[in-house]
Design a protein that fits this description.
The N and C termini lie far apart (about 60 Å). With about 240 residues, the chain is mainly α. It contains eight helices and no strands.
């Protein structure tokens, strides 16, 4: 054997198949800020549910988009995303006020209202780690609307979720709890929709059995996954397996 022949392959690493030596690493700055875009889209979808457009079923997509955007984020990120959501919603919603008072008061009022939704975004980010977080998030919507409607010059209650339900099945709830109950129902429908989307994306199913090809169920009897708001009982087959062990 020639000298050095046996050591020529020592310490040599083979490149994994399918990789290119010239491919540059992905930079975080190039990634699309999808959470911010989702907040903008959510605010615009909520706008379309109000009179003038009256696409009532779209109202639930507003809370759903905000819940998805801030889920699992820090408070600072939640504040930013809530502010973006609020500006996308209130700036066009209150555009009628600019006709009478001019653009500066209109934008100032829209910004003031958006600050309340910034607080909502930060609080929703906090409760997104709690069990049954869709209920907590929906309750925060009602609390935020109560805050907006009571403070500073007797409040500015424009844009409450309940006001978007000029028709549809949720409107009947006004007879039992007024606008706050309608708002809670709209928000809860949206946050539950967001929880379902998170469970489907992360586990291939909605808090139950795994979809075909998914190695695990996203929710277990002994705990919860981040996309599932509450524990789900095991399937009968899984229960029998535990008893047989």
């Amino acid at each position: 054997m020639p000298a050095g022949h046996g050591a020529s392959g020592a310490g040599t690493l083979t490149r994994p198949a399918g990789t290119s030596p010239s491919a540059p690493p992905e930079r975080p700055g190039r990634r699309l800020p999808w959470r911010t875009l989702l907040a903008v889209v959510g605010g615009l979808l909520l706008l379309l549910a109000f009179p003038g457009y009256s696409l009532v079923p779209l109202a639930v997509l507003g809370p759903a988009a905000l819940a998805l955007a801030v889920h699992g984020q820090r408070v600072r990120a939640g504040l930013w995303l809530g502010l973006v959501f609020g500006l996308a919603f209130f700036v066009p919603l209150l555009s009628w006020s600019g006709i009478y008072v001019g653009p500066v008061p209109w934008l100032a009022l829209a910004g003031w209202e958006a600050l309340h939704l910034a607080l909502l975004g930060g609080a929703t980010a906090v409760v997104s780690r709690l069990p049954a977080w869709p209920v907590w998030a929906a309750a925060l919507w009602v609390a935020d609307e109560a805050l907006r409607g009571r403070f500073v010059l007797d409040g500015f209650p424009w844009g409450r979720l309940g006001f978007s339900q000029t028709s549809g099945p949720l409107l009947s709830l006004a007879a039992y709890g007024g606008v706050p109950l309608v708002s809670f129902a709209v928000a809860l429908t949206g946050t539950l929709l967001a929880a379902a989307v998170l469970a489907l994306v992360r586990g291939g199913t909605w808090c139950g059995r795994s979809a075909p090809g998914s190695p695990r169920s996203p929710c277990r009897w002994s705990g919860r996954s981040p996309g599932c708001p509450w524990p789900v009982p095991p399937s009968p087959r899984a229960a029998l397996r535990r008893r047989s062990r």
